[in-house]
Amino acid sequence: MSSKVYFTDMHVGMGDSLLDKFERLITKAGIDQIDFQDKFVAVKLHFGEFGNMAFLRQQYAKVLCDHIKAKGGKPFLTDCNTLYVGYRNNALNHLDAAYMNGYNPLATGVHTIIADGLRGTDEREIPVEGGEYVKTAKIGAAIAEADVIISLTHFKGHVGAGFGGAIKNIGMGAGSKKGKMEMHSSGTPMINTGDCIGCSMCVKNCANDGVHVIDGKAVIDEDKCLGCGYCIAYCPKGAIATKWDEAKPVMNRKIAEYTKATLAGKEAFHINMLINVSPDCDCEGGNDVAVIPDVGMFASFDPIAIDQACVDAANKQPVIAGSAADKCACHDHGHDHVHGHDVFKIMHPDTDWEAGLIHGEKLGIGTREYELIDVK
């Protein structure tokens, strides 16, 4: 059976607004079928790396949270810390970035919580029913303990996943540092000896005797390291990093399995914003121009269907002249850069976005078959 995906475009007339259309969309899509009364509601989104300007405006989150509060819910905005060494690598800097980008209580009317805590180690282990790659997902505690999950996603390109949609927002985004390590890598982390100061913080926080300081530099013991990534979280200099060595189709399947665990036993609802479609993730410290024209807003109870609908809608659009997609298409990847293209494969030809949706469908998260319903 197909799932219902609701859609509205970005056109408004006199006396109307995009925020009004946003609320009409989520209402028509059935968000009020969820019993929000006295429930903790995790609104999972991406606050945007400091310096990036492609992330969603906070006004959409405010309308969503106001709607949930009116139904008796207790919403909060949330994301987990990043695995890479960037501005959102710990909860304090992460909150700084969120607040500067508008995701603060004064602007949104709700609290912002970094779900996996100060260093990215506050997690809950959740079994992955039917998991082929992951048996137990490591999910940020605040997300794992919420009663309801609402994903609010900026749909865009991604260098590893092909695109970043609802599945990536929920799966990769809800993973703690250890969880992100598991999705990104099949092995052990690596040491950048030039940055290492030999402080032994990694040694003190390794439960498996997997790292030692030798001659003033940290060294990974490949025989004992379990690849948990805790040393990454505790290194004060960012000298320890993942090898980013997981095959991209496998990474997408792991993301689907993390999505399965995150949503297990919870009511959930998903909103994708197919606007300002940047070539790369909002994790980047900057962003390039959009690669296609703005399409609109999508809402569904099915995270697989909504991502498939967004891919299909994006690929019906012409690429914007001079954008990254246009430049990549001109390098002859075998695509017509105006019609019949896969815009995400054009930009990131070595990715396999379809692997995650196929695997998610297999896991029972949702279906790629959908009925698109227009909302005025």
Automatic annotation (TrEMBL):
Q: Which residues form a coiled coil?
A: none
Output the superkingdom of the source species.
Answer: Bacteria
* Stretches assigned to the 4Fe-4S ferredoxin-type domain: 187-215, 216-245
Q: Which SUPFAM superfamilies match?
A: 4Fe-4S ferredoxins (SSF54862)
Which keywords has UniProt assigned to this entry?
Answer: 4Fe-4S, Iron, Iron-sulfur, Metal-binding
Annotated GO MF terms: 4 iron, 4 sulfur cluster binding; metal ion binding
Q: Please give the PANTHER family that the UniProt record associates with this protein.
A: 4FE-4S FERREDOXIN-TYPE DOMAIN-CONTAINING PROTEIN, PHOTOSYSTEM I IRON-SULFUR CENTER-RELATED
Query: Briefly, what is this protein's role?
Result: Ferredoxins are iron-sulfur proteins that transfer electrons in a wide variety of metabolic reactions.
Q: What is this protein called?
A: Ferredoxin
Q: Which organism is it from?
A: Anaerotruncus colihominis
